[in-house]
């Protein structure tokens, strides 16, 4: 029978909200969100029949955004889709699990280093009138520094995926992240929004 489905496909990019075109938003939603939904719906009859497992690749970025809101948006949407699906599939014996990796940019190469020059050249005239090259360079440097801190041990995420597929009692969520990343998620999930905004604004200012 058909036992397990892992929705792992995803793309990432950098840019503040107004820097990205509507076409880019549509592309990200199509790959990161609708792609997983299409695949799930295609295999759902078999997964129900054989009481299988469905695993989705989310991210701790579902809880907050630091220069890649377009990626955060799709991961937050996947989380809500999974929450609904997990409850609906329980009566069929199908388990739905979410993997929430931290920063594994150096392992996956999902996000190459960003070029301030390329970003500037792609900005509309309206955005160029608001921002300047120095600001774009600062944001690019900040984001590239985050990428450089990514873990190279991608096996940790693979192990979580394997456990989600094979464990007799899989977790609903597997957060595979560094302690400071888990702490940031904790702040974002449990503290008032004003606290979260203060923490993230401080990080961006640095």
Which properties best describe this structure?
four-stranded parallel β-sheet; membrane; Rossmann fold; alpha/beta; about 210 residues; globular; BDH protein; about 60% helix
Overall shape: it is: globular
Distance between the termini: 52 Å
Helicity range: 55-70%
Radius of gyration: 18 Å
Q: Stretches where pLDDT falls below 50 for ≥5 residues?
A: none
CATH class: Alpha Beta
Q: How many individual β-strands?
A: 4
Number of domains: 1
Biggest sheet overview: 4 strands, parallel
CATH topology: Rossmann fold
Instruction: List the total number of helices.
Output: 9
| Largest sheet strand order | 1-2-3-4
CATH architectural designation: 3-Layer(aba) Sandwich
What fraction strand?
5-15%
Instruction: Find the CATH superfamily.
Output: NAD(P)-binding Rossmann-like Domain
- State the order of secondary-structure elements, H for helix, E for strand: EHEHEHHHHHEHH
Mean pLDDT: 92
Secondary-structure class: alpha/beta
Helices and strands in order, then pairings?
Elements: E1 4-7, H1 22-49, E2 53-57, H2 69-89, E3 95-101, H3 105-108, H4 116-122, H5 125-130, H6 133-148, H7 155-166, E4 173-176, H8 179-190, H9 193-205
Parallel strand pairs: 1-2, 2-3, 3-4
Description of the molecule:
The protein is α/β, with parallel strands linked by helices and 206 residues long. It has a single domain, classed as NAD(P)-binding Rossmann-like Domain (Rossmann fold). Helices cover 58% and strands 10% of the residues. It has a four-stranded parallel beta sheet, sandwiched between helices. Helix 2 links the parallel strand 2 and strand 3. Helix 1 packs parallel to helix 2 and helix 4 packs across helix 6.
